[in-house]
Specification:
Layout (H helix, E strand, L loop, with lengths): L1 H7 L1 H29 L25 H31 L1 H5 L1 H15 L3 H12 L3 H28 L2 H8 L4 H37 L11 H8 L8 H26 L6
């Protein structure tokens, strides 16, 4: 009911429609336009926007507009994958005090508290050094970098649910810890975790663009929004479109993801 109510609002519905369009584009763009995105034309190097090239060309004469479209799949897939890793790791760490007992739970909680004290980007750079340069390394780096925030949220939600009467009754009835966690705790904390995972996906998009911009994420010849901007930074005064257009695409998508998550968070539970 709550998701349906979000879709009925102008902002929530518009954000959801754009997100659906982006997902469809991520599936179809590499199939339809990969050849045009990779086509090199030395006679069209660093040309501005025109009817032939809507977003101009890069230093090899490749069409920037089609490169942005084709890069959507990799950018979105890596962000969703990193979010999945972050949520899964956060759930394991956040539910450890309930699943493994107080002694182990205290150690896990202390580790999470230490990790949360560091900025997410610093953690991403740290893990990028460990896992190496490239898409796979960036996937795990960003996934583990966002995991502490999910772990802290999960710990808070689990601690709140663990104090409820129905949890005490289940314990008295002899329900095991794994069953207690799966049947009684997780279903009651799922919605806030999904909302924060949605917002976390937007942050993962930004993080991947940042790593690729620094040369630690997606590597050539595969296009990504961050690598397209990185390739254009040396031409920023002469060919501003190399950074403005992929940056605008990233901005719009992250804005829609955050709007959808925030609007869901602020929408009442009951709708007519």
């Amino acid at each position: 009911m709550r998701w349906r109510g979000v879709l009925r609002t102008p902002i929530g519905g518009s954000a959801a429609a754009l997100l659906a369009a982006v997902l469809l584009l991520a599936i179809l763009a590499p199939i339809l336009w990969s050849d045009r995105a990779d086509a090199i034309d030395t006679s069209q190097i660093l040309q501005g926007a025109s009817s032939a090239h809507w977003a101009g060309t890069d230093s090899l004469g490749r069409d920037v507009f089609f490169r942005i479209l084709v890069a959507t799949r990799l950018s979105v897939a890596l962000a969703l994958g990193a979010t999945g890793i972050g949520v899964a790791t956060g759930l394991l760490l956040g539910t450890a005090p309930l699943a493994l007992g107080r002694r182990v739970g205290r150690l896990v909680t202390a580790a999470v508290n230490i990790a949360v004290a560091f900025p997410g980007l610093l953690l991403a750079l740290f893990f990028a050094v460990i896992f190496g340069v490239g898409s796979t390394g960036g996937l795990f780096a960003i996934g583990f970098a966002i995991a502490p925030a999910f772990a802290r949220l999960t710990q808070t939600l689990v601690a709140k649910i663990a104090g409820q009467d129905f949890i005490s009754a289940a314990r008295i009835a002899g329900v095991s810890r794994p069953r207690l966690l799966v049947r009684h705790v997780l279903p009651n904390i799922g919605e806030p975790l999904i909302i924060n995972a949605t917002i976390g996906a937007g942050n993962a998009l930004l993080a991947f663009a940042g790593l690729s911009f620094l040369g630690l994420g997606v590597q050539p010849p595969y296009p990504s929004w961050g690598s397209i901007m990185a390739a254009g930074r040396q031409y920023v005064q002469r060919a501003w479109w190399l950074t403005v257009f992929p940056g605008s695409a990233l901005f719009v998508l992250v804005l829609c993801v955050n709007l959808f998550g925030d609007w869901h968070l602020s929408t009442p539970y009951v709708f007519a």
